[in-house]
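[job 0417] fold request received: Fe2OG dioxygenase domain-containing protein
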Amino acid sequence: MKTDPSQRAQTMETRAADTGTKFDWTDVGRSLDDYGNAVLPGMLTPKQCETLAVLYDRDDLYRSRVVMARHGFGRGEYKYFAYPLPPLLDELRHALYPLLAAIANRWNALMRVDVQYPDELEAFLDRCHRAGQTRPTPLILQYGPGDYNCLHQDLYGTHVFPLQVAILLSEPGRDFEGGEFVMTESAAHGQRAEVVALRQGDAVVFTVNQRPVPGLRGGTRKVAMRHGVSAVRSGRRHTVGLIFHDAQ
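[job 0417] inference complete; emitting structure tokens
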């Protein structure tokens, strides 16, 4: 059954208001500045997580399936959703984008990158689509024992939004063991790795490619970020990823 457009708009407005007030976005921005990531605890309820996780077996919802080992990405698999996205993910994508666009624009100004992101997701997606980037990028990942995700960056075309959101759908210690979200930072002075602890329903906002940091002698320099998932020791782990640019 199709959702009435006015009802969908009202739902999205409520979601946007909830997202804007549930978290301290000044703290989110500060954590992203300092570490390249920020945790949004309890973004989804356990029921919402379970509802999304069971969608993994619904092949009609996806445009493609990727077995990581075939491409050297690690082990495990993921599926890219087709349009239209599941309503909850569509609402979250629209609600989070304007909050993150403000941070992305501030970062680009600091890094002297001549790109500014529009206030609303639809305008940014229109920019992607006019450049031939028309394939949706939100995805769901499934890991079993021994599966892992190599460190990587999700760069799909000319227009790349510099922040991404992953939401853990499974409960560590109950549904799976291991499988920690990992980030690395590479710069001329060395490297840094960080394990980001998440519980079921927690989201992590993280840097897709580069972020600005204070220079050693003043000014601003760029550091490169990558993300991945350590090996799952037992059980099954599901995650959804919200990527804001579409792919070619």
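[job 0417] notes: The chain has one domain: 5-242. The radius of gyration is 18 Å.
[job 0417] exit 0
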